[in-house]
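Lab notebook: predicted structure, single chain.

Context: the supervisor wants predicted structures on file for every construct in the current expression panel, including those that have not yet been purified. This is the next one on the list. No modifications to the sequence; it matches the entry in the shared construct table.
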Amino acid sequence: MTAKSMEELTSLCKRRGFIFQSSEAYGGMQGIYDFGPLGVELKNNLKTAWWQSMVYERDDVEGLDAAILTPQKVLHYSGHEETFSDPLVDCRNCKKRSRADHIIDGKCPYCGSTELTDPRPFNLMFKTNVGPVEDEESFAYLRPETAQHIFTNFKNVVDSTSRTVPFGIAQIGKSFRNEITPRNFIFRVREFEIMELEYFVKPGTDEDWHQTWVDLRLDWWERQGVSRNAIQLHNVPKDDLAHYSKATLDLMYRFPHGMDELEGIANRTDFDLGSHTKHQSKLGLTADVKSNRDSTVRLAIQDLSTNQWFVPFVIEPSAGVERAILAVLNEAYEIERLENGAERTLLRLPPHLAPIKVAVMPLKRNHEQIVSVARETVKKLQFLGLGRITLENTGNIGKSYRKHDEAGTPMCVTVDFQTLEDDTVTIRDRDSMDQIRLPRTELSAHVTEAIRM
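Prediction complete. Output recorded below exactly as produced.
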Protein backbone atom coordinates (compact mmCIF):
# COMPACT_ATOMS: atom_id res chain seq x y z
CA MET A 1 0.00 0.00 0.00
CA THR A 2 1.52 3.30 -1.08
CA ALA A 3 0.69 6.62 0.56
CA LYS A 4 -2.80 7.92 -0.11
CA SER A 5 -1.67 11.52 -0.21
CA MET A 6 1.42 13.71 -0.16
CA GLU A 7 0.28 14.97 3.24
CA GLU A 8 0.74 11.47 4.72
CA LEU A 9 4.32 11.32 3.50
CA THR A 10 5.22 14.85 4.55
CA SER A 11 3.77 14.20 8.01
CA LEU A 12 5.79 11.01 8.41
CA CYS A 13 8.94 12.69 7.09
CA LYS A 14 8.76 15.50 9.64
CA ARG A 15 7.61 13.30 12.54
CA ARG A 16 10.42 10.81 12.14
CA GLY A 17 13.16 13.21 11.07
CA PHE A 18 13.47 12.45 7.37
CA ILE A 19 12.85 15.86 5.79
CA PHE A 20 12.27 19.39 7.14
CA GLN A 21 11.36 22.68 5.49
CA SER A 22 14.63 24.62 5.22
CA SER A 23 14.93 27.62 7.57
CA GLU A 24 11.50 26.79 8.99
CA ALA A 25 12.22 28.88 12.10
CA TYR A 26 12.30 31.94 9.84
CA GLY A 27 9.26 31.06 7.77
CA GLY A 28 11.00 28.62 5.43
CA MET A 29 12.15 28.94 1.83
CA GLN A 30 9.88 27.69 -0.94
CA GLY A 31 11.38 24.79 -2.85
CA ILE A 32 14.26 24.27 -0.39
CA TYR A 33 14.38 21.33 2.05
CA ASP A 34 16.76 19.94 4.66
CA PHE A 35 17.32 16.25 5.31
CA GLY A 36 17.12 15.31 8.98
CA PRO A 37 18.81 12.50 10.97
CA LEU A 38 16.98 9.69 9.18
CA GLY A 39 16.73 11.51 5.85
CA VAL A 40 20.46 12.00 5.46
CA GLU A 41 21.01 8.28 6.12
CA LEU A 42 18.41 7.26 3.54
CA LYS A 43 19.82 9.74 1.05
CA ASN A 44 23.39 8.51 1.52
CA ASN A 45 22.29 4.87 1.30
CA LEU A 46 20.44 5.52 -1.96
CA LYS A 47 23.40 7.33 -3.49
CA THR A 48 25.70 4.51 -2.37
CA ALA A 49 23.41 1.96 -4.03
CA TRP A 50 23.51 3.97 -7.27
CA TRP A 51 27.30 4.35 -7.15
CA GLN A 52 27.71 0.66 -6.35
CA SER A 53 25.63 -0.25 -9.40
CA MET A 54 27.13 2.28 -11.79
CA VAL A 55 30.80 2.18 -10.83
CA TYR A 56 31.78 -0.71 -8.54
CA GLU A 57 29.74 -3.43 -10.27
CA ARG A 58 31.09 -2.43 -13.70
CA ASP A 59 34.55 -2.19 -15.20
CA ASP A 60 33.73 0.46 -17.81
CA VAL A 61 32.76 3.49 -15.70
CA GLU A 62 34.88 6.13 -13.96
CA GLY A 63 33.72 8.54 -11.26
CA LEU A 64 33.89 12.32 -11.09
CA ASP A 65 33.10 15.02 -8.54
CA ALA A 66 33.20 18.34 -10.36
CA ALA A 67 32.69 21.93 -9.23
CA ILE A 68 29.28 23.53 -8.77
CA LEU A 69 30.34 26.98 -9.99
CA THR A 70 30.25 26.95 -13.78
CA PRO A 71 31.78 29.52 -16.15
CA GLN A 72 29.30 31.36 -18.35
CA LYS A 73 30.93 30.09 -21.53
CA VAL A 74 30.32 26.44 -20.61
CA LEU A 75 26.57 26.97 -20.38
CA HIS A 76 26.56 29.27 -23.38
CA TYR A 77 28.11 26.71 -25.72
CA SER A 78 26.06 23.86 -24.21
CA GLY A 79 22.91 25.72 -25.28
CA HIS A 80 21.58 26.28 -21.76
CA GLU A 81 21.70 30.07 -21.87
CA GLU A 82 19.51 30.06 -24.94
CA THR A 83 17.14 27.17 -24.23
CA PHE A 84 17.07 26.44 -20.49
CA SER A 85 13.90 28.35 -19.71
CA ASP A 86 10.22 27.99 -18.80
CA PRO A 87 7.32 30.15 -20.03
CA LEU A 88 6.38 32.67 -17.31
CA VAL A 89 3.14 34.63 -16.87
CA ASP A 90 2.23 37.25 -14.26
CA CYS A 91 -1.21 37.73 -12.77
CA ARG A 92 -2.12 41.43 -12.93
CA ASN A 93 -4.62 40.91 -10.10
CA CYS A 94 -2.67 39.09 -7.34
CA LYS A 95 0.81 39.81 -8.78
CA LYS A 96 1.89 36.17 -8.49
CA ARG A 97 3.82 34.33 -11.16
CA SER A 98 3.14 30.94 -12.71
CA ARG A 99 4.41 28.72 -15.48
CA ALA A 100 2.31 29.23 -18.58
CA ASP A 101 1.94 25.47 -19.10
CA HIS A 102 0.36 25.19 -15.63
CA ILE A 103 -2.43 27.66 -16.42
CA ILE A 104 -5.82 25.95 -16.81
CA ASP A 105 -8.67 27.61 -18.69
CA GLY A 106 -6.74 30.87 -18.80
CA LYS A 107 -7.14 31.46 -15.05
CA CYS A 108 -4.55 32.30 -12.40
CA PRO A 109 -4.07 29.21 -10.18
CA TYR A 110 -3.86 31.44 -7.10
CA CYS A 111 -6.79 33.87 -7.42
CA GLY A 112 -8.72 32.69 -10.48
CA SER A 113 -8.28 35.96 -12.38
CA THR A 114 -8.04 35.92 -16.17
CA GLU A 115 -5.95 39.12 -16.18
CA LEU A 116 -2.68 37.42 -17.16
CA THR A 117 0.31 38.72 -19.07
CA ASP A 118 1.52 37.09 -22.27
CA PRO A 119 4.03 34.25 -21.66
CA ARG A 120 7.71 35.18 -21.74
CA PRO A 121 10.79 33.01 -21.34
CA PHE A 122 12.33 32.80 -17.86
CA ASN A 123 15.85 31.39 -17.60
CA LEU A 124 16.06 28.85 -14.79
CA MET A 125 19.75 29.19 -14.00
CA PHE A 126 21.09 30.88 -10.85
CA LYS A 127 23.71 33.57 -11.45
CA THR A 128 26.43 34.52 -8.99
CA ASN A 129 29.53 36.71 -9.04
CA VAL A 130 33.05 35.35 -8.72
CA GLY A 131 35.60 37.65 -7.09
CA PRO A 132 35.32 41.13 -5.59
CA VAL A 133 34.22 42.98 -8.73
CA GLU A 134 30.66 42.58 -9.97
CA ASP A 135 30.46 43.06 -13.71
CA GLU A 136 29.55 41.12 -16.86
CA GLU A 137 33.01 39.54 -16.94
CA SER A 138 32.91 38.11 -13.40
CA PHE A 139 29.63 36.23 -13.20
CA ALA A 140 29.16 32.48 -13.23
CA TYR A 141 26.25 30.08 -12.85
CA LEU A 142 25.39 27.49 -10.26
CA ARG A 143 25.24 24.41 -12.46
CA PRO A 144 21.71 23.38 -13.54
CA GLU A 145 22.89 19.78 -14.12
CA THR A 146 26.02 17.74 -13.50
CA ALA A 147 26.47 16.67 -17.11
CA GLN A 148 28.39 19.64 -18.53
CA HIS A 149 31.40 19.23 -16.25
CA ILE A 150 31.55 15.60 -17.34
CA PHE A 151 31.78 16.70 -20.97
CA THR A 152 34.38 19.39 -20.31
CA ASN A 153 36.43 16.80 -18.37
CA PHE A 154 36.11 14.18 -21.11
CA LYS A 155 39.66 14.71 -22.39
CA ASN A 156 41.11 14.71 -18.86
CA VAL A 157 39.44 11.40 -18.02
CA VAL A 158 40.46 9.77 -21.32
CA ASP A 159 44.06 10.96 -20.96
CA SER A 160 44.38 9.85 -17.32
CA THR A 161 42.65 6.47 -17.64
CA SER A 162 43.31 5.47 -21.28
CA ARG A 163 39.63 4.56 -21.67
CA THR A 164 38.18 3.60 -25.04
CA VAL A 165 34.51 3.40 -25.91
CA PRO A 166 32.20 2.15 -24.71
CA PHE A 167 32.81 3.66 -21.28
CA GLY A 168 31.06 6.03 -18.90
CA ILE A 169 31.67 8.82 -16.43
CA ALA A 170 29.40 8.90 -13.37
CA GLN A 171 28.70 11.76 -11.02
CA ILE A 172 26.38 12.57 -8.12
CA GLY A 173 26.08 16.18 -7.15
CA LYS A 174 24.13 19.29 -6.32
CA SER A 175 22.33 21.20 -9.05
CA PHE A 176 20.25 24.36 -8.97
CA ARG A 177 17.24 25.51 -10.96
CA ASN A 178 15.31 28.69 -10.21
CA GLU A 179 11.92 27.04 -10.63
CA ILE A 180 9.01 29.45 -11.10
CA THR A 181 6.65 27.31 -9.03
CA PRO A 182 8.34 24.64 -6.88
CA ARG A 183 5.73 22.10 -5.86
CA ASN A 184 4.79 18.63 -4.65
CA PHE A 185 7.10 18.47 -1.64
CA ILE A 186 10.60 17.40 -2.75
CA PHE A 187 9.55 16.44 -6.28
CA ARG A 188 10.29 19.83 -7.86
CA VAL A 189 12.69 22.01 -5.89
CA ARG A 190 15.30 24.69 -6.51
CA GLU A 191 18.27 22.91 -4.91
CA PHE A 192 18.62 19.19 -5.51
CA GLU A 193 21.03 16.38 -6.32
CA ILE A 194 21.35 14.44 -9.57
CA MET A 195 22.71 10.92 -10.11
CA GLU A 196 23.97 11.07 -13.67
CA LEU A 197 25.92 8.84 -16.02
CA GLU A 198 27.29 9.89 -19.39
CA TYR A 199 28.00 6.70 -21.31
CA PHE A 200 30.10 7.20 -24.46
CA VAL A 201 29.51 4.85 -27.39
CA LYS A 202 30.41 4.49 -31.04
CA PRO A 203 27.94 6.13 -33.44
CA GLY A 204 25.65 3.50 -34.89
CA THR A 205 25.56 1.53 -31.64
CA ASP A 206 23.77 4.27 -29.72
CA GLU A 207 20.21 2.98 -30.17
CA ASP A 208 21.11 -0.50 -28.87
CA TRP A 209 22.93 1.02 -25.90
CA HIS A 210 19.96 3.26 -25.22
CA GLN A 211 17.72 0.22 -24.84
CA THR A 212 20.35 -1.58 -22.77
CA TRP A 213 20.46 1.25 -20.26
CA VAL A 214 16.67 1.38 -20.04
CA ASP A 215 16.66 -2.30 -19.04
CA LEU A 216 19.50 -1.84 -16.55
CA ARG A 217 17.82 1.10 -14.89
CA LEU A 218 14.49 -0.73 -14.54
CA ASP A 219 16.32 -3.58 -12.82
CA TRP A 220 18.06 -1.15 -10.44
CA TRP A 221 14.79 0.49 -9.41
CA GLU A 222 13.34 -2.92 -8.57
CA ARG A 223 16.28 -3.53 -6.25
CA GLN A 224 15.43 -0.28 -4.47
CA GLY A 225 11.89 -1.45 -3.79
CA VAL A 226 10.19 0.29 -6.75
CA SER A 227 8.34 -2.46 -8.60
CA ARG A 228 8.57 -2.69 -12.37
CA ASN A 229 4.77 -2.69 -12.35
CA ALA A 230 4.84 0.76 -10.72
CA ILE A 231 6.77 2.26 -13.66
CA GLN A 232 5.46 3.20 -17.09
CA LEU A 233 7.73 3.91 -20.05
CA HIS A 234 7.17 7.15 -21.95
CA ASN A 235 8.88 7.94 -25.24
CA VAL A 236 9.16 11.72 -25.27
CA PRO A 237 7.61 13.12 -28.47
CA LYS A 238 10.02 14.75 -30.90
CA ASP A 239 8.53 18.21 -30.35
CA ASP A 240 9.11 17.91 -26.58
CA LEU A 241 12.71 16.67 -26.68
CA ALA A 242 15.46 18.71 -25.06
CA HIS A 243 17.68 20.63 -27.46
CA TYR A 244 20.46 18.04 -27.14
CA SER A 245 18.36 14.86 -27.47
CA LYS A 246 17.85 12.49 -30.38
CA ALA A 247 15.54 10.33 -28.25
CA THR A 248 14.55 10.25 -24.59
CA LEU A 249 12.67 7.60 -22.69
CA ASP A 250 11.24 8.64 -19.33
CA LEU A 251 10.54 6.21 -16.51
CA MET A 252 7.20 7.46 -15.17
CA TYR A 253 6.10 6.67 -11.62
CA ARG A 254 2.78 7.29 -9.89
CA PHE A 255 3.77 9.70 -7.14
CA PRO A 256 1.16 10.81 -4.59
CA HIS A 257 0.52 13.87 -6.79
CA GLY A 258 0.13 11.76 -9.95
CA MET A 259 2.11 10.14 -12.75
CA ASP A 260 5.41 11.98 -13.28
CA GLU A 261 9.01 11.50 -14.36
CA LEU A 262 11.25 9.45 -12.08
CA GLU A 263 14.26 9.16 -14.39
CA GLY A 264 15.12 10.17 -17.93
CA ILE A 265 17.35 8.13 -20.25
CA ALA A 266 18.46 10.24 -23.19
CA ASN A 267 20.42 9.70 -26.38
CA ARG A 268 22.38 12.97 -26.53
CA THR A 269 24.25 12.02 -29.75
CA ASP A 270 27.50 14.01 -30.12
CA PHE A 271 25.82 17.33 -29.35
CA ASP A 272 27.71 18.12 -26.13
CA LEU A 273 31.21 17.03 -27.09
CA GLY A 274 30.79 18.96 -30.31
CA SER A 275 29.37 22.08 -28.73
CA HIS A 276 32.25 22.51 -26.27
CA THR A 277 34.84 22.54 -29.04
CA LYS A 278 32.89 24.38 -31.73
CA HIS A 279 34.64 27.66 -30.97
CA GLN A 280 37.53 26.47 -28.80
CA SER A 281 39.34 23.58 -30.39
CA LYS A 282 42.00 23.73 -27.67
CA LEU A 283 39.58 21.84 -25.41
CA GLY A 284 39.49 18.84 -27.70
CA LEU A 285 41.75 16.06 -28.84
CA THR A 286 43.76 17.34 -31.77
CA ALA A 287 42.51 14.99 -34.47
CA ASP A 288 40.62 16.56 -37.36
CA VAL A 289 37.27 14.86 -37.23
CA LYS A 290 34.25 15.93 -39.23
CA SER A 291 30.95 15.90 -37.46
CA ASN A 292 27.84 14.46 -39.04
CA ARG A 293 26.48 18.02 -39.00
CA ASP A 294 29.38 20.28 -40.00
CA SER A 295 33.13 20.37 -40.43
CA THR A 296 34.04 21.84 -37.05
CA VAL A 297 36.82 20.12 -35.10
CA ARG A 298 35.22 18.12 -32.26
CA LEU A 299 36.16 16.16 -29.19
CA ALA A 300 37.07 12.75 -30.52
CA ILE A 301 38.47 9.40 -29.51
CA GLN A 302 40.44 6.83 -31.44
CA ASP A 303 39.18 3.38 -32.37
CA LEU A 304 42.26 1.28 -31.65
CA SER A 305 41.10 -1.52 -33.93
CA THR A 306 40.94 0.74 -37.00
CA ASN A 307 43.01 3.75 -35.86
CA GLN A 308 40.11 5.93 -36.97
CA TRP A 309 39.01 8.94 -34.92
CA PHE A 310 35.36 9.55 -34.20
CA VAL A 311 33.12 11.67 -32.01
CA PRO A 312 31.38 9.46 -29.42
CA PHE A 313 27.63 9.52 -28.96
CA VAL A 314 26.34 9.73 -25.39
CA ILE A 315 23.62 7.80 -23.56
CA GLU A 316 22.56 9.53 -20.36
CA PRO A 317 20.58 7.91 -17.53
CA SER A 318 19.76 10.79 -15.17
CA ALA A 319 17.76 10.61 -11.93
CA GLY A 320 17.09 13.16 -9.21
CA VAL A 321 17.98 11.98 -5.73
CA GLU A 322 14.99 13.73 -4.14
CA ARG A 323 12.54 12.18 -6.60
CA ALA A 324 14.13 8.81 -5.98
CA ILE A 325 13.68 9.21 -2.23
CA LEU A 326 10.05 10.25 -2.71
CA ALA A 327 9.35 7.16 -4.83
CA VAL A 328 11.16 4.80 -2.44
CA LEU A 329 9.29 6.20 0.57
CA ASN A 330 5.97 6.04 -1.27
CA GLU A 331 6.51 2.39 -2.25
CA ALA A 332 7.63 1.42 1.26
CA TYR A 333 4.82 3.23 3.09
CA GLU A 334 2.12 1.02 4.55
CA ILE A 335 -0.63 1.22 7.15
CA GLU A 336 -1.27 -2.31 8.38
CA ARG A 337 -4.36 -3.38 10.30
CA LEU A 338 -3.47 -5.81 13.08
CA GLU A 339 -5.53 -8.74 14.37
CA ASN A 340 -6.57 -6.81 17.46
CA GLY A 341 -8.05 -4.07 15.26
CA ALA A 342 -5.23 -1.60 15.85
CA GLU A 343 -3.12 -0.11 13.06
CA ARG A 344 0.58 0.34 12.65
CA THR A 345 2.45 2.53 10.16
CA LEU A 346 5.62 1.11 8.71
CA LEU A 347 8.15 1.62 5.94
CA ARG A 348 9.05 -1.64 4.21
CA LEU A 349 12.37 -0.25 3.00
CA PRO A 350 14.91 -2.65 1.50
CA PRO A 351 17.42 -3.30 4.32
CA HIS A 352 20.32 -1.73 2.42
CA LEU A 353 18.39 1.56 2.21
CA ALA A 354 17.05 1.63 5.78
CA PRO A 355 18.43 4.64 7.72
CA ILE A 356 18.87 2.53 10.86
CA LYS A 357 19.87 -1.08 10.33
CA VAL A 358 19.36 -2.35 13.88
CA ALA A 359 17.92 -0.81 17.05
CA VAL A 360 19.15 -2.43 20.26
CA MET A 361 16.69 -2.05 23.15
CA PRO A 362 17.34 -2.64 26.83
CA LEU A 363 14.16 -4.03 28.40
CA LYS A 364 14.65 -1.83 31.47
CA ARG A 365 16.31 1.54 30.92
CA ASN A 366 17.62 1.98 34.47
CA HIS A 367 18.99 -1.54 34.92
CA GLU A 368 22.77 -1.11 34.89
CA GLN A 369 23.66 -4.64 33.72
CA ILE A 370 21.02 -4.81 30.96
CA VAL A 371 21.95 -1.36 29.61
CA SER A 372 25.65 -2.25 29.74
CA VAL A 373 25.11 -5.43 27.70
CA ALA A 374 22.96 -3.47 25.23
CA ARG A 375 25.71 -0.87 24.73
CA GLU A 376 28.26 -3.61 24.25
CA THR A 377 25.99 -5.22 21.64
CA VAL A 378 25.63 -1.92 19.77
CA LYS A 379 29.40 -1.45 19.59
CA LYS A 380 29.91 -5.00 18.33
CA LEU A 381 27.36 -4.53 15.55
CA GLN A 382 28.79 -1.13 14.62
CA PHE A 383 32.12 -2.77 13.80
CA LEU A 384 30.38 -4.75 11.03
CA GLY A 385 30.24 -1.57 8.92
CA LEU A 386 26.69 -2.20 7.74
CA GLY A 387 25.37 1.26 8.58
CA ARG A 388 23.83 2.98 11.53
CA ILE A 389 23.19 0.87 14.68
CA THR A 390 21.43 2.68 17.52
CA LEU A 391 20.64 2.19 21.20
CA GLU A 392 16.93 2.76 21.90
CA ASN A 393 16.98 3.17 25.67
CA THR A 394 13.42 4.24 26.46
CA GLY A 395 12.29 1.22 28.44
CA ASN A 396 9.01 1.04 26.52
CA ILE A 397 9.51 -1.81 24.06
CA GLY A 398 6.06 -1.56 22.43
CA LYS A 399 6.39 2.15 21.60
CA SER A 400 9.97 1.63 20.46
CA TYR A 401 8.85 -1.07 18.03
CA ARG A 402 6.24 1.27 16.53
CA LYS A 403 8.75 4.09 16.27
CA HIS A 404 11.22 1.93 14.37
CA ASP A 405 8.49 0.46 12.16
CA GLU A 406 7.84 4.02 10.97
CA ALA A 407 11.56 4.64 10.54
CA GLY A 408 11.93 1.51 8.40
CA THR A 409 14.38 -0.23 10.77
CA PRO A 410 14.55 -3.87 9.55
CA MET A 411 15.10 -5.44 12.96
CA CYS A 412 15.12 -4.68 16.67
CA VAL A 413 17.21 -6.55 19.22
CA THR A 414 16.00 -6.68 22.82
CA VAL A 415 18.35 -7.28 25.75
CA ASP A 416 16.40 -8.53 28.79
CA PHE A 417 16.80 -10.43 32.06
CA GLN A 418 17.18 -13.75 30.24
CA THR A 419 20.17 -12.26 28.42
CA LEU A 420 21.94 -11.97 31.75
CA GLU A 421 21.35 -15.67 32.37
CA ASP A 422 22.13 -17.33 29.01
CA ASP A 423 23.52 -14.49 26.81
CA THR A 424 20.68 -14.72 24.28
CA VAL A 425 18.68 -11.84 22.80
CA THR A 426 15.30 -11.44 21.12
CA ILE A 427 15.31 -10.38 17.45
CA ARG A 428 12.10 -8.88 16.10
CA ASP A 429 11.51 -8.59 12.33
CA ARG A 430 9.91 -5.35 11.09
CA ASP A 431 7.77 -6.78 8.31
CA SER A 432 6.40 -9.96 9.89
CA MET A 433 6.79 -8.89 13.56
CA ASP A 434 8.04 -12.44 14.19
CA GLN A 435 10.50 -12.87 17.04
CA ILE A 436 13.30 -15.35 17.48
CA ARG A 437 15.81 -15.97 20.24
CA LEU A 438 19.51 -16.23 19.38
CA PRO A 439 22.80 -16.38 21.30
CA ARG A 440 24.62 -13.05 21.09
CA THR A 441 27.57 -14.92 19.58
CA GLU A 442 25.41 -15.59 16.49
CA LEU A 443 23.94 -12.10 16.26
CA SER A 444 26.59 -10.56 13.97
CA ALA A 445 26.24 -13.29 11.36
CA HIS A 446 22.44 -13.09 11.48
CA VAL A 447 22.41 -9.30 11.05
CA THR A 448 24.97 -9.37 8.25
CA GLU A 449 22.99 -11.91 6.27
CA ALA A 450 19.71 -10.01 6.75
CA ILE A 451 21.07 -6.57 5.85
CA ARG A 452 23.15 -7.62 2.86
CA MET A 453 20.56 -9.94 1.31
